[in-house]
Write the structure tokens for this entry.
Amino acid sequence: MERFLRLFTDIRKGEAPTALLLTLNVFLIFTAYYIIKPVREALILAGGGAVVKSYISAGQALLLLFVAVPLYGWLASRLPRRRLINLVTVFFASCLAVFYVLAQAKVPLGIVFFLWVGIFNLMVVAQFWSFANDVYTTDEGKRLFPIVAFGASFGAVFGSFATGRLIEPLGVYQLMLVAGALLLVGVVLTNVVDARERRRTEKSRAVAASTAEQPAATQEIRLESGEFKIADLKQAMEEKPAEKPAPKKESLGGGNAFGLVFRNQYLLLIAFLILVLNWVNTNGEYILGATVAATANRMVAAGHANGLSAEQIIGRFYSDFYSAVNLTGLLLQLFAVSRILKWFGVRVAILILPAISLLGYGVLAFVPVLGMIRLAKVAENSADYSIQSTTRNVLFLPTTREEKYKAKQAIDSFFVRAGDVLSAAVVYVGTTLLPLAVPQFAMLNMALVLVWLVLAVLIGRKYTQVAAAAAAGQAQPA
């Protein structure tokens, strides 16, 4: 198995079992998500309509800001990682069973379920990567994350494929139970990996001082030896170190996760990069969707649709589009990501997606035709789901466990949704107050991508400093 995996990345003796278990775990998470996505679409379009759907990202952002992220940080400060992940995942799986029961009772679920799915798919995925970051050292993660991330890519493809074949014999609502069962299997795999890695790296630690008993969110960092060290990386991360403030008692609503982000330049740069990335990508989705709809309507009006309705043309287009994105993403994940990280490093890898986006929207500003828009978005989305996704998770490898579990949740959930909200505002202004065409939206995205490139350069520099400090064990003691 290890010889086979070396075709795709640099894997060493004894590393295959944990890597494959993590790959299977994230595969199950993404399969579950892509099984319930059609359920989400069916419920929201039937119960709220497309207009409600377009504005609901603001509600998700508010829930993440004031409820979900602070609550998760509170739990992470009190529970060991195994119990934290078990509790959160079982909670989400239980919610699916509750939704199923409510659906059988004919209770309207559209808006509530859409809000829930938007929080679930961000928080559970972020939690998985927090755990993977906790398990691996920086060197191990850079080598093995490309294999683990393949599970996410394949789960998205398989989940979509399986749903198309299960929805008719099982029905829409029964898919909720299937997704919940997959999440519970993932919990079992998490516990196996947790026990395996504690046996491997924490033999010398007393149980009470190990990750079996200590809260998930601590000031420990993972050294390249595999050991944990209590540390404060602030001096390594900040250009102008400041005296460490006295610890403050954390409260449920204190927003400690956001405090970690805003007090740390490295994490703040990552947060803004994620925000701008999602802003650009969502703007691009609008450009694509508006162009596809306009093209389909013109084809029907001109009698060139071969008997198809506009909805059928749009559906066929997106089916082909998502197939191209998923296949390209899988190939990049298997054959390109590990080699890019190994040969060029994080500082180059983090620049690839914004470079692709800048080129794509630069072309669209002058050639705003559907074929070019499709090509640009296939390139952008496939690179986002493979190169960018893996690199983004690598950035957290040299951070403290507290930052992995708390700050990563805030960044990967709230700041993603904040990008959606900003995009919704841009689309509203650009379609009502200042009617803009595709070239103008593309130029706006080009301006945002330039900001994105600056952030990527700064993060690449900071990552090098932080990773070197963590590897050398030069952090100040807590």
